[in-house]
Write a structure and sequence with these properties.
By secondary structure, the protein is α+β, with helices and mostly antiparallel strands. The protein has helices spanning 3-55, 63-81, 92-106, 183-186, 198-213, 231-239, 247-266, 270-273, 278-285; strands spanning 111-112, 117-124, 133-144, 154-167, 170-177, 294-311, 318-333, 336-356, 364-369. The strands form 2 sheets. Strands 1, 2, 3, 4 and 5 form a 5-stranded antiparallel sheet that branches. It has a 4-stranded antiparallel sheet with strand order 6-7-8-9. Strand 8 and strand 9 form a beta hairpin. The chain is globular. It starts with a helix and ends in a 12-residue tail after the last strand.
Length: 381
Amino acid sequence: MSSSGVEAIAAGGGLALVAAGYWIAIARGALSRRRAERSERVRAKQTEAAALEASFEDRAFAPDVIRKAVHDILARAAEVWRGEPSAAHADARVILGWARSFQESVGSGVRLAGPPSIDLLRVVNRPGESEDRIVLRVRLRLSRGRRGSLRKPRTVTIDQRWTLARASGGWTLSAIEPDPLAPRLLNRPLVAGVWQDEDRIREESLLELAAAEATPSPPDPSELVSPEAPPRTQLLELAEFDARFSPDLLAATLDRIVEAWEEAGTGSQAPLASVASPDAIEQLLHPLGDPRPSLRIHDPHVDQWEVVELNLNTHPPQVVLSLTVSAVRYLVMGTERVVGSREIAHEMELVWRLKLTGRDTSPWQLTASTNPAADIPNIEL
C-alpha cells in the first residue's frame, strides 16, 4: 500500500475518533440533563411541601400565592411588551430590564404563548421579612410576531431561575438567572421556619455557649496565648477561655456573612449590615469602586478557611482569615451583565478582617475584604 493510502486511512481513523468523541459528549450531556431533571422533580415536591408548611405561619408562602405573584410579574412584563410599562412596583426595574431584553433580542410583538410552568425550588422563611426568599424554576413560551400577520408567529422557550424577595408583605422579583438545574441550588437547605433552620440553630447554640461562659471582667486575650505559637494554635488556646474565638463559631459567622452577601446583591442589605461594616459592604458589593458596577454572587459556599493573624493588642481584638469561597459571580451595571459567567461557579481567594463587636447575637463583624472580583477575566472591561 502506498504511503498516501496509509495517510488516508489514518486520517479517516482520526475523523472517526473525533466523531465518536463528539457523540459520546452529546450522550453524556443528555444523561446529565436527565439526571438533573429527575433531581429537580424530587426537589420541587420537597419545596412545595416546605412552602405549605411555612404557609401555616405566614400565608404569603402558600404555593398558590407564590404562583399568583409570578403571574402578576408576567402581567407587568406584558405591559412593557405592549409599550405600557408601569413603575409603581418595587421590582419595576428588574421586570423592565428583563422584558426589554427579549424585545431587543427577538423583536417587537412579544407575548406569552400559553401559561407558565412554575416549580418551587427553595424556601427560606426566617423571622421578619428581610431574609425571606423563594427560588423558582419558571419555564415560558413566548411568541414573537404581531397578531393578524400572515406570517406564522415564532415561539421562544426560556427556562430560568427566578428569586422572589419579600416587600410590604408580598413578593417582588429580585433576580433572574439562567441555571435552574444547578446542583448546588437543588441541594441548598429548605427553611420552612425557625424549627427547620439547622444552620441558625447551630449558630445560636454556639452563641449561647459563648454568652454562658463569658465573665464580667475577661482577661486580656494577649495574655492567654503563646506569642511564638502559630495563629491557629493561638486561636485554639483562646477558645478554651473565650468561646467567641471558637473555630466553630467563626465558621458559622463566615457562612452567615457569605449568605447575607448573596442576598444583598439583589435584595435587602439589612442582613449583611448586621455582620459587616459599611466599608466592608462596599468592598463586597462594589469592588471596583466608580463607576460602581455591582458584584452579584449566587449559590456561594465557604470551601475552606484558615486564621493567618490575630491582633490581640488592638481594641477590640481582630482576626485575619484567608478563605476560599466558590460561587457563581459576575459584575453588572444597572440590569445588564458587564463581565463574568452567570452559570459557572468559580473560586475566590479572599482575605477577611473581623473584629469583636461586644454583641451577644453577632460577636464578629467583617471590617475589610480583599477584592472579590480581582480574577474575573477581562476585568478591565
